[in-house]
Design goal:
The structure is a single chain. The two termini are 53 Å apart. With 477 residues, this protein is of the alpha+beta class. Helix content is 61%, strand content 11%. The longest helix is centred in the middle third of the chain and has 67 residues. It is built from 10 helices and 4 strands. The radius of gyration is 38 Å and the shape is elongated. It folds into 2 domains: 101 residues, Single Sheet (Outer membrane efflux proteins (OEP)); 349 residues, Outer membrane efflux proteins (OEP), CATH 1.20.1600.10. A 4-stranded antiparallel beta sheet has the order 1-2-3-4, covered by helices on one side.
Length: 477
């Protein structure tokens, strides 16, 4: 017991001293967050709302479950977060970078290995002083360090910091993928709903056009309508059939796209029939100031973490110019007989420090430092570009939000007016006051107005989804 205590003390005292010596700060430059290269306020003008409705929360604080209130859409999003392969890759990437960080962090601490061994050797006659061949047996047991670097200049610490920032960046990348996936599923859900509603409108229009065609056909056979009227009525029927085929294809493709995003076949009961006006809970929300919103977006946080990692890497490159001190040591017991391994006098130890000082490397260390500095500058530019891109995305979404309600109201009024015109045209034709050409023209106008109304309603709902995404929608696992 006394020998083991002495062995532990002999090993731990120098280790404690070495750890204290290696606990210095790094040579990385002090990190300063770059100023956002965008305006301090959102754009203003005719396309933007003069004011914003007060809200208790910013969109970035609202979890997607609270933002998207449609029950079918919620279930689809839950399936997507569970099964989508891009989401799985993002989560697994976090695990990989976490393990990489732990590997790099372990280099800050000495690695102590226990070892034991036996050597059996026959020494020939010419190599012995007695002139007789001899057999030598050696038994050893102990513990030791395996090439531990004393981090006096912070090289290992800088590499650990760089790995940590990469790990943190991977978590922000996961959040970016999640927000993007949620918005993509919601947009695909709305796209399918819009195309199904367009398909229904095309089928209803075909039914109406067939009735009109049969009426004109009867009038033609009775000599009350011309062949021109008959062929004009036929064109509207065939046009409706074309749209039915086209929207049937689009709806099928929309389902395929939704299945890809969800990562599994979508149950039929979760598919939308028509556009719902209650997809989201928030109809209007204040985006706040650019600096508050943009710097909270996970993609921008990811870019900043990568910038911090590049900054830490400069410290490792600078430390390469200074001496590198390594240590190999061991402490234990040795004997020529197994029975005498732990007897008095069998205690042994060894310490083998080494130092390496770069004298001439052909400019390698200088070039590596230059690479690290350029990588930092590239990361700054990428961080600033991410902010500028985010600013543009939010500004575009705000521009559409500022005008979409007015556009929807105007489109609804146009559709109502076109429907009334179509009703009057049919009444005038039935009374023989007007030609069938005006009826066909009014029917085409009404059909186009109804299709545009669906498209405008889709744009309004899609804008709410876009606002959730570009404002860094709230994270909710």
């Amino acid at each position: 017991m006394t020998r083991m205590k002495r062995m532990t003390t002999t090993l731990c005292l120098p280790l404690g001293a070495f750890l204290c010596l290696s606990g210095c700060s790094t040579m990385a430059p002090k990190y300063t967050q770059p100023a956002p290269p965008v305006s301090a306020a959102w754009p203003t003008g005719p396309a933007y709302q003069a004011g914003t409705a007060p809200t208790q929360k910013q969109l970035a604080d609202i979890p997607w479950r609270d933002y998207f209130v449609d029950d079918q859409l919620r279930k689809l999003i839950e399936l997507g977060l569970k099964n989508n392969r891009d989401m799985r890759v993002a989560v697994l990437s976090i695990e990989r970078f976490r393990a990489q960080f732990q590997i790099q962090r372990s280099d800050l601490f000495p690695k102590i290995n226990a070892n034991g061994g036996a050597t059996f050797q026959r020494i020939p006659e010419d190599f012995t002083s007695s002139g007789r061949a001899a057999t030598v047996n050696q038994y050893t047991v102990g513990a030791g360090l395996l090439s531990y670097e004393l981090d006096l200049f912070g090289r290992v610490q800088s590499l650990k910091d760089q790995a940590l920032e990469q790990y943190l960046a991977s978590d922000q990348a996961r959040r970016t993928v999640q927000i993007s996936l949620v918005s993509q599923i919601a947009t695909s859900y709305l796209t399918l709903a819009a195309d199904r509603e367009r398909l229904k409108l095309a089928k209803d229009t075909l039914t109406s056009q067939l009735q009109s065609f049969e009426l004109i056909k009867s009038r033609f056979e009775a000599g009350a309508s011309s062949a021109l009227d008959l062929q004009q009525a036929r064109t509207t029927v065939e046009a409706a059939r074309i749209d039915i085929a086209r929207y049937t294809t689009l709806a099928a493709q929309d389902e395929n796209a939704l299945s890809l995003l969800v990562g599994s076949p979508v149950p039929a009961e979760l598919l939308p029939a028509t556009l719902s006006e209650t997809v989201t809970a928030v109809k209007d929300a204040s985006p706040g100031l650019p600096s508050d919103v943009l710097l909270r977006r996970p993609d921008i946080r990811q870019a900043e973490e990568q910038l911090k990692g590049a900054n830490a890497n400069i410290g490792a490159a600078r430390a390469a110019f200074f001496p590198k001190i390594s240590l190999i040591s061991s402490v234990g017991f040795g004997s020529s007989e197994l029975s005498g391994l732990f007897k008095s006098g069998a205690f042994a130890w060894s310490i083998a420090p080494s130092i390496s000082l770069p004298i001439f490397d052909g400019g390698s260390n200088t070039a590596k430092l230059k690479v690290a500095e350029v990588d930092r500058d590239i990361a700054i530019a990428q961080y600033e570009k991410a902010i500028q891109t985010a600013f543009r995305e939010v500004a575009d979404a705000l521009a559409q939000r500022g005008t979409i309600d007015e556009q929807l109201a105007a489109q609804q009024a146009l559709t109502d007016a076109t429907a009334e015109r179509n009703r009057l045209s049919i009444a005038r034709f039935d009374k023989g006051v007007d030609s069938h050409l005006n009826v066909l023209d009014s029917q085409r106008s009404l059909y186009a107005a109804q299709q545009n109304l669906i498209a405008t309603r889709f744009s309004r709902l899609a804008n709410l989804v876009t606002m959730y995404k570009v404002l860094g929608g709230g994270d909710s696992d």
